[in-house]
Amino acid sequence: MSCVSAPSGGQSAPERKRRSVSKGGKSLTPLTKTSDKPAPVLDRSFWKLFSASATVTSADGIARVSLPLLATSLTTNPVLISGLTAFSFLPWLVFGLPGGALADRLDRRAAMSTVNFMRAALIGALVLLIITGVDSILVLYVIAFALGLCQVVYESAVRAILPQIVNRRGLDKANSWLTVEETVGQSFVGPPVGGLLFSWFRAAPLLGAAIGFAVAAVLVLAVPGRFRPRRTEPTTVRADIRHGLRWLWRHPLLRGFTILSGLIAGLMSMATSLFVLYALETLKLSPSVYGILFIAMGIGGLVGSAAVGPLTARLGRPRMINIAVTIAPVMFVLLGTVTNLWAAGVWFFGIAVGITMWNVLAMSLKQALIPDELLGRVLGAHRVVLWSGIPLGAVLGGVVAAETSVPTAFAVSGLAQLVVVALLYRLINRHQQMIVESAES
């Protein structure tokens, strides 16, 4: 099967194998289409998308480490600090479904460029507020919410555009490369640079992030072609949302996969929302060294990205999903038992390995099973469930940390995740054949 960018209409030249779920949700009907000859898995269109995405994640990495550090300069209340994470994910509850539907109606490349310009403007406005001395925790909450709205549209579009550029057999490889650049940007570039610049001047890292988003907005326009999904008849946004929800609910694997993934994400946010307090108060690190701590996670992410392909080829996608989803919860439990920097670095490394492999496998599975014309709205519905628990989990983590300690919140998070992981094992094992076939499309 070949994979090339879509010069017209956002559809790739090769015809792809399709699987549709019956109304009862119990059988699959393969509709096989073949191409004349194979083509390279990753072409120039992918690498242009890769360069734009790498710039976005570097800017996002700087912003993600800078906003919590800025919050700690305004308050040390664990609930208020974790609340910043909650506000950044609230837009998925408010706008996740419409945002996914828009990704199936708009040119996905143009949407990605537009929201990157908007993120640059929002962070630029925050820089001015810091310089003029009118920043506050309330201002950070508002900015975090607005950035979250932009992320809804961007994430829906970037994940939906990938199968239009890369064929389904190349999704694991393409997602691995995107995960590599995400790891480098959000671990090796963003946090160290953001932490060091923050130590010099609070607004400096945010200015760099604003410039990065603006550059990325221009770079994404270099991806050739139009990426508006084809439609046979006009529909409304509301009808599109209902269609996506109905398709997801009737799918025997993705329905349970979405619910359990949402529970894991919410429980994981109990710990991740407190990373900054763990570093500054438990490990006694300075803001500049806090950014460097993410290097351990960056290395873990690179290892996970490099290992997931060969391990999946050797062990199979179902078994590899079960392994990947187990690693991070175990590491969170262990992280709750240490206050030493070097030991913490090892567990941070392990967390990144597990999360990276899980993200690659989960995204490839969804992209392989969901039809192209439904990707935006179904992935949007999936993320609404996936990330709707994150605000609640973040606040719960802050409450647990306030009543006990940050390491205790980490341990509680990991143990609760393992309970949900056991349920996910059963789901994956029940649908092994469908998962195997999705990797062979």
Brief digest:
The protein has helices at residues 44-72, 78-103, 108-132, 137-165, 171-200, 204-219, 237-250, 254-272, 275-282, 287-315, 317-335, 341-369, 375-403, 406-430, 432-439, and strands at 18-21, 28-31. By secondary structure, the protein is mainly alpha-helical.
Give keywords:
single chain, 441 residues, mainly alpha, two-stranded antiparallel ribbon, 2 strands, 2% strand, globular
Descriptive notes:
By secondary structure, this protein is mainly alpha-helical. The protein is 76% helix and 2% strand. The chain contains 15 helices and two strands. It has helices at 44-72, 78-103, 108-132, 137-165, 171-200, 204-219, 237-250, 254-272, 275-282, 287-315, 317-335, 341-369, 375-403, 406-430, 432-439, and strands at 18-21, 28-31. The chain has a two-stranded antiparallel sheet. A hairpin with a 6-residue loop joins β1 and β2. α11 runs antiparallel to α14. The protein is globular and about 55 Å long. The N and C termini lie close together (9 Å). The relative contact order is 0.16.
